[in-house]
Amino acid sequence: MRYLPLTDADRRDMLAAIGAASIDELFADVPKAARRDGLVDLPKAMGELEVERRLSAMAAKNVAAGSVPFFVGGGAYRHHVPAAVDHLIQRGEFLTSYTPYQPEVSQGTLQYLFEFQTQVALLTGMEVANASLYDGATACAEAVAMANRVTRRNKAVLSGGLHPHYRSVCETYARFAGNQLDAQDPAPGGGEDLAGRIDSDTACVVVQNPDFYGEIRDFTALARICHDKGALLVVVVTEVLSLGAITPPGEMGADIVAAEGQSIGNALNFGGPYVGLFATRDKFVRQMPGRLAGQTVDAEGRRGWVLTLSTREQHIRREKATSNICTNSGLCALAFTIHLSLLAEEGLTRLARLNHAAAVAAADRLAAVPGVKLVNRSFFNEFAVRLPRPAAPVVEKLAERGVLAGIPVSRFYPERTDLADLLLVAATETVTEDDIERFAAALTEVLR
Amino acid sequence: MATLRFTKDHEWVRQEGDTATVGITDYAQEQMGDVVYVELPEVGRRVEQGKEAAVVESAKAASEVYAPVSGEIVAVNDVLGGDPAQVNADAMGGGWFMKIRLADPKQLDGLMDQAAYDAFVAEQH
After folding, report:
1. DSSP letters of A64-108?
2. Which runs of E-coded beta strand occur in A282-427?
3. Which of A45, A102, A274, A431 could form a disulfide with A262 if both were Cys (CB 3.0 to 4.6 A apart)?
4. What pLDDT is attached to residue A191?
5. Nearest by CB: B37 against A286, A316, A320
6. Which of A381, A405, A397, A386 shows the shortest CA–CA distance to A446?
């Protein structure tokens, strides 16, 4: 088969074969309002140099994360990724390979996936991890679906500290799967009674650590209550680097951990592709979604790898599969594995401490700006501050002054006027003292 | 006297008084190959004739096991948790799946006896 554009004659032949008069006829089922008449109005052909000039001029209008003091987090974090990571993942064997469907011939892929799983299990304090899902948000929705299967119940209680995007992905899944969600109101500073929401239909309680507002939480007591009531505890982690410094969910009694792994090995990438981490207890492994690489020996006793427990998956189990996801974020998972291998445990801990130190410095300095109050009692590398006026226009003014100051909470909850003054600020190891000083000075000026 | 009956989905059911023992047939285990996992229902659950009651997995396939009769699960074969290969070794005996307290013993009359099942299997080839 040749991958060449079709000629008009090819198109005519194919339409004749299926009995359609025109290509448009094939789109008859798409509502007219959703279709576009005619072509998009693009300029005619241009020379390469001209295109480059034009696109460079457009690109120069961007304020890139790396070009200004940058304090934006909210589930996607700018970290330094060592050059070795990019160099290694661009090897052809890795760069072009897809999730293995004839897995045993891809021993190299299976080996790094096995190592990735081991790293994820160690980081989260869990017994078993899969070969990754698409991102943290879909991992979260898959965790809810899995809890329903394990408990044969149908309701998930979502903490108000859960990232609102994660909540909406859960809602999208629930709309079609028919399960119930009991989503709590946003709760900066905590204070919600999740245990009181658990009843005999509750399959799981979904919490986040650090929560959406950066607060570090201890869910040990909640885990015990969940288990007493026959429900599972799902812990979401949107900043995986925090696990280099704080107690992992597994030690708090989590049954499922769903996390975003972007922070390790992966750049911001305009919001994706990212890598979803998914870990659970051994006893639930058969209800886990996604691919799972396992270690074994071949006929001659040599160590080798296989995809194991595939009978959970769609290509074998069909509509009864644990999930319709039967691929993974292979290249992002590889970047994660390489970066974490380069860091090792000691490097991870040091990197986590650098992040915390940067955030402490930023929080102290910003809290010294007249009218600004720190909301958190604890945090890792992200925290919320309350400004003396709505945060969104302040952030715009700061951007004009060349500071990307963070995320106004009103972007997620425009209807909640009580949250309008809240600003989420992240400070990673990429933030310098000078960046913090410029942020504080610009903020002082804007609030004056 | 124990009555042995079969379904078209290759389950067997043996009536003993008001309960019945259920498993998959020797033909079924042979078709599946090495059984690696059996998911059994919890005791006390009510199952309905023809509806999924258990799952049996071999290395490359997973199949539902349907309840041949309606009723309440009164026992499951816990041995299969640690030794699913029992299903291959002794499908009609030690590889049993569950015991059901019969809701309606008459349901057994609608199932095949040994001769009818043997003929049914022969037709499959």
Report:
1. -GGGS-B---SS-------HHHHHHHTSHHHHTPPSPSSGGG-HH
2. 293-297, 303-307, 373-374, 382-386, 407-408, 422-426
3. A274
4. 83
5. A286
6. A397
A320, B62: Cβ pair inside 8 Å?
A: yes
User: Using CA atoms, how far apart are residues A282 and A286, in angstroms rounded to an integer?
Assistant: 9
CB contact under 8 A, B39 and A286: yes
pLDDT score at A99: 72
Q: In chain B, what are the domains? A: 3-107 (2.40.50.100)
Give me the amino acid identity at A340.
Answer: L
Q: What is the pLDDT of residues A383-394, one digit of tens each?
A: 999 999 999 999
- ipTM of this model? 0.72
What chain A holds in terms of domains, given with CATH numbers, is 65-80+344-447 (3.90.1150.10), 83-339 (3.40.640.10)
Q: What is the pLDDT of residues A57-71, one digit of tens each?
A: 999 998 889 999 999
How far is Cα B5 from Cα B119, in angstroms, rounded to an integer? 13
Query: What does the block give as tokens for A56?
Result: 């460079």
Asked if A320 and B37 come within 8 Å (Cβ–Cβ), the reply is: no
What token pair was written down for A348? Answer: 């991870």
Statement: residue B12 has pLDDT above 70:
yes
| pLDDT for residue A103 | 83
Helices and strands of chain A, counted as H and E runs: 13, 13
Cβ–Cβ contact B34 with A under 8 A: no
Using alpha carbons, select from A288, A329, A335, A325 the residue that is nearest to residue A99: A329
Report yes or no: B79 at the A interface, CB cutoff 8 Å: no
Asked if B63 reaches chain A (Cβ–Cβ under 8 Å), the answer is no
- Chain position carrying tokens 């001769």: B115
pLDDT of residue A224: 98
The distance from CA A91 to its chain's CA centroid, rounded to whole angstroms, is 25
Indicate the residue type of A358.
A
What is the Cβ-side half-sphere exposure of residue A107, based on CA atoms within 13 angstroms?
6
Q: Give the mean model confidence (pLDDT) for residues B18-37.
A: 94
Amino acid found at A199: D
Helical (H) or strand (E) element with A111 = helix A107-124
CB B74 within 8 A of CB B101: yes
Nearest residue of chain A to residue B59 (CA atoms): A311
0.95 surpassed by pTM:
no
Mark the ranges of chain A whose per-residue pLDDT is less than 70.
1-2
pLDDT at A2: 66
Contacts of A357 (CB under 8 A, 6+ apart): none
